[in-house]
Amino acid sequence: MDADTLGMWTFLITEVLFFGGMFAAYAVYREMFPLAFAATSEFMNVKIGAANTAVLICSSLTMAMAVRSAQISKTSHLIRYLFGTLFFGTIFLVVKAFEYHAKYVEHLIPGPNFHPDNLAPQFMHNAQILFFLYFCMTGMHAVHMIVGVGLLTFLIIMAYRNAYNEHYFAPVEMIGLYWHFVDIVWIFLFPLLYLIGHWHW
Amino acid sequence: MATTYQPTTTEAAAEEPVNYLNVEHGWKSWLFTTDHKRIALLYLFSITLMFITGGAFAILVRLHLTQPQGLFSPETYNRLFTMHGVVMIFFFLVPSIPATLGNFLLPIMIGAKDLAFPRINLLSWYLYMGGALFAIFAVARGGVDTGWTFYAPYSTTYSNSYVLTAAMGAFFAGFSSITTGLNFIVTVHKMRAPGMNWMRMPLMVWANYATGLIQILGTPVVAIALVLVGIERVMHVGIFDPNVGGDPILFQHIFWFYSHPAVYIMILPGMGVISEVIACFSRKRPFGYEFIAASSMGIAILGFLVWGHHMFVTGQSVYTGIVFSFLTFFVAVPSAVKVFNWTATMYKGSVTFESPMLYAFAFIGLFTIGGLTGLYLSTMATDVALHGTYFVVAHFHFVMVGGMVVAFLAGLHFWWPKICGRMYSEPWAKFAALLIFAGFNLTFLPQFVLGYLGMPRRYAAYPPEFQVLNVLSTAGASILGIAFFIPMIYLTYAWFYGPKVGPNPWQAKGLEWTIQSPPTTFNFDQTPTVTEEAYNYGPREENYVA
Prior knowledge:
The structure holds two protein chains of two kinds. Chain A is an all-alpha fold.
C-alpha cells in the first residue's frame, strides 16, 4: 500500500468516527424510544429512498469502472464513467432536495412548527429526535456528496487534460475510495432511518 | 551570557552554510512553505501567542480568587475560566509538542526528507489559524461562559455568550489536529529510512505515532458533538434537548469519548520528549525500551475505554461506573511503566544536570503526583467527595502543566540548538527551570488542599477561611507567569545572538544529531541507512563542554 492509499484509508477511519457519533446517538435513542421511532419511520418515503439507494449503487459501479479505466490508460472511458458518476450523484442530491422539501411541507421539521398529521400524540416529542437525526445524518451525508461532486468535476477537468494514465492514477483512486465510503454511509442510513417498523414480527 | 564569542555579521554571513532558515527569505517563503521545519516554527510562534492569551486569562482567574467574593462579577469570572480552558486546551496543549517539535523532528528521526503529505501539513496550520481566529473573535466579543466542556443543555439553550463561535474554533482546531495525526501515521509507516525498523525508532517517534492514532480516532467524535450542539443552539431543538426526550448526558458521553483520550494527546508526546532527554543526559539506553514504546500504544488504546470516569456523579449507572473505575486503574499501569523505566534509566547512569534534564526531573516528580492523584479520582467512593472540587483542578494541572508544559520546555531546550543552530544561556535556563518548578508547586499544591477541604471549582466566590490558600496559589501563579516569560526572552535572544553550535552539542545519539544545525531543507544529503537503534550511548567524549 503506498502512502496516498494509506493516508486516504486513515482519513476514512476518521470519517467513520465522525458519522459514528451520530450513529451512536441514533442507537441510544432507538433503544430508548423504539415505538416512537417505528411510528415516525412511517413518514419516510421508502420508495424514493430505495430508488436513491439504487442510484448510489450505480454511481459506485461507474466510479469503480472509472478507476479501472484510469489504471489501464483509457482516458475516454475514464471521462465517460466519471460523467456517469457525476450524473448519478447529482440525481441523488436533486431527489434528496425534493424529499427535504416534502418534509417541510408536511411539517416534519423539528421545532415549533413540528406537527405531522396522523402521528399519535404520545410520540409528538420523541418523534422530533428521529427527525432531527434524520436531517443531521442525511444532511451530513449530502454535504459529503456535494464535496464528492466537486471532486468529480475536478477529476473530469484533469482527465480532459490527459492527466491520468497507468503510471499516475492516484487521485482517481483516492476520490474513488472517498466516493465508495460516502455510498456505504447511505447503505447504513437507508435501513436505519426508512425501514424501521415497516414489518412486524 | 556564559560565552564571550560573538561572530561579526560579515563573519557570520560568510560562514553560514545553506540551511532551511536562510535558503529563502520573505513572507511568501514562510506562508507558502511545505518544509516541515518551517511549518513547525509557524506553529511554535502561533501556539506561543495562544499560550500567552490563555495564560493572561489564568492570571485574571487567580486575581479574582484572591478575594472571597471575587474581584470581577460572577458572569465575568465564568467567561474568564472558560476562555482559559478553551484557549489552553484546543489551541495550546493539543497542538503543542506534535505540531512543533514533532513536526520538526519526526521526519528527521526516521531519516525522511519531510512528512508524507507536506501540503496537508501546511493546510493543518491554516486550519489551526482559522480556528484560532474564531476563538480570538469569541474572546473579543466577550467570551464564552459554558466551561471548556460545552455541556448541554447550558451550551445549547441557556448560555448567553459566544458558544457557536468558540465551538467553531474548537472544530477547526480539531481538524488541524486530525491532519497532523494522519500525516504522522502515514509518515511513520511509509517514510522510514532503510534499516529503521519499528524496534529502532526513537521513543519520541513512538509517542507521536500513538498520539496520531488518538487524534484520528477521537477528534472526529468531538467534532460531530460540537456540530450537534451548534445545530441545536440555532434550531432550538435537538437530540440533547430534554423537552423532546433528549438526554444531555449523551452529550457528556460523546464529548468525553474524545476529551479523555485528548488528555493523552496532550501528555504522550511529552513522555516521548522525556524519554529522549533522560537517555541523553544519563548516557544510557532507556531501560526497557520496548516496554516504553509498548506503553505508549497501551495508553493510546486504554485511553479510549475510560471516559466514563468523568461522569461518576452525573447520572451514570453505578455498574457502568464500576467498569470505568476499573479500566481507569488499568490505564495507570502503562503510565507507571514509563515512570519506573525512566527512573531505572538514570540508575547507574552518568547523570548530568543540563537544563533539559532539570525539566525532565521536574516532569517525573510532578507527573507522578498528577498521576497518583488521578487514582484518588478514579476510585468511585473518593471521587464522590472530590468530584468538581479544586482537587480535580490541581490533579489536571499537575499532569498538563507539570507534565506537558514542562516536557515541552524540556524538548524546546534540548532541540533548540538543532532548530536554530545556536545555544541559549544555560545559567538563565537553569534559573528559569527552578523558578517554574517553585512557582508551579506554590500555585497548585494549595489547590489539592482546597479541594480536599471542599472548595468547588468554577464558583466565583468561596468562604473566607479558604482565602489564605487561595492567596498562596495566586502568589505562585504570579511567579509562574513571570517564569514562563524568561525562556521566551533568552531563547529568542539565542536565536539571534547565541553562540553557534555544531551538529551535536549534547553528544546525543539519533539521526537528528548527525545532520547540520540548523538542518538543510531536505534534512539529509543522501538517505541514511540505519544500523542500530538511537540509543547507543557511551561515556562522553573529552571535548564536551556544556
